[in-house]
Design goal:
The chain contains 2 helices and 23 strands. The longest helix is centred in the first third of the chain and has 6 residues.
Length: 314
């Protein structure tokens, strides 16, 4: 089996036109790691995947096409496949751009003096599941675990501002957007919150799995919170070309939810977080500012459409 490697660069070709050709006579392309050749979980293809083509003998002018259904951007340039090759590499960053979308895949070839076209495969690229996003829960740099699942942030143990650390999420890419807030005094209504990252755009040097985002949290803001109260970091991000998010923090006193919204976004695009992870998602730190913690509080992550978010209470 021989193969062709695609360029890893998304190109501004006309997505609406790349899947038009002649009568469909060739079989569907077969996508590595796709369940029933119809559903692809992106983490399975974290290092990329392949499309295997079924070509007639002596096929020439073989061209491979990939486009996101009902969406013009990002677009991918048709790939010319050298004669004799029947496997095309699909790079990981192409999969990243397609998360949460249905992708249209086909190929064309000339053989026996005829122009041939394959059936168009509709491949659903799933959202990344919660267990693979939990690595990106926010972490307070100066918090310490003093008992199992009990973390404390002692203001007297450090000088200057606190720092919120966030490990890059799987399959991150340039241009994604990040929102981070920290909520405090959640036992009163309305509680206080502060943006630590508002519409941060992922840059080239940040778009890799080992990157850790570091955002400053004002010491002055922390000092105005009640002693022994909790703080919660909320993280929201997008896996597409736009983003909006609303995080909901559980108020210990009432058990109700209070929302805060990223300014300027339509309510139709709101993302609400209101559930806890299931078993196996790992321990989540919980702490009190300056004193003892009362109980653990599970970190949360959630996905909705193109968007995802997680938060961790300390």
């Amino acid at each position: 089996m021989v193969k062709k490697t695609l360029s890893e660069k998304p190109i501004s070709a006309q997505a609406s036109g790349v899947l038009q050709a002649t009568e469909a006579e060739l079989p569907y392309a077969v996508i590595q790691y796709a369940t029933n050749n119809s559903v692809l979980y992106p983490i399975d293809a974290i290092d990329g995947t392949t499309a295997t083509l079924t070509l007639p003998a002596n096929a020439t002018h073989v061209t491979f096409y990939l486009a996101i259904k009902d969406q013009e951007e990002p677009a991918f340039e048709p790939v010319s496949v050298a004669n004799g090759l029947d496997v095309v590499d699909i790079p990981a960053n192409w999969i990243s751009y397609c998360i949460g979308h249905t992708v249209l895949i086909k190929y064309t070839a000339n053989a026996g003096g005829r122009a041939l076209e394959s059936l168009t495969l509709e491949l659903k690229v799933q959202q990344i599941r919660e267990e693979h996003l939990v690595v990106s829960r926010p972490v307070f740099a100066h918090s310490k675990e003093e008992e199992p699942n009990t973390w404390r942030l002692k203001m007297q143990s450090f000088t200057g501002d606190e720092t919120v650390h966030i490990k890059a999420w799987p399959m991150i890419y340039v241009g994604q957007r990040l929102f981070v807030t920290v909520a405090g005094n959640q036992h009163v209504t309305p509680y206080r919150f502060r943006w630590v990252a508002l519409d941060h755009v992922v840059q080239l040097h940040e778009a890799h799995a080992d990157h850790v985002f570091r955002f400053s949290l004002s010491r002055g803001w922390l000092s105005r919170l009640n002693d022994y109260s909790s703080i919660t970091a909320h993280l929201g991000g997008d896996l597409g070309q736009d983003c909006a998010c609303v995080s909901r923090a559980r108020q210990p006193a009432s058990g109700k939810s209070a929302a805060f919204k990223c300014p300027g976004f339509s309510p139709a695009h709101d993302l609400a977080l209101a559930r806890r992870p299931g078993p196996g998602s790992g321990p989540t730190p919980f702490a009190r500012i300056g004193g003892a913690a009362s109980r653990p509080m599970a970190g949360q992550s959630h996905q909705h459409g193109q968007r995802w978010a997680c938060h961790c209470q300390l």
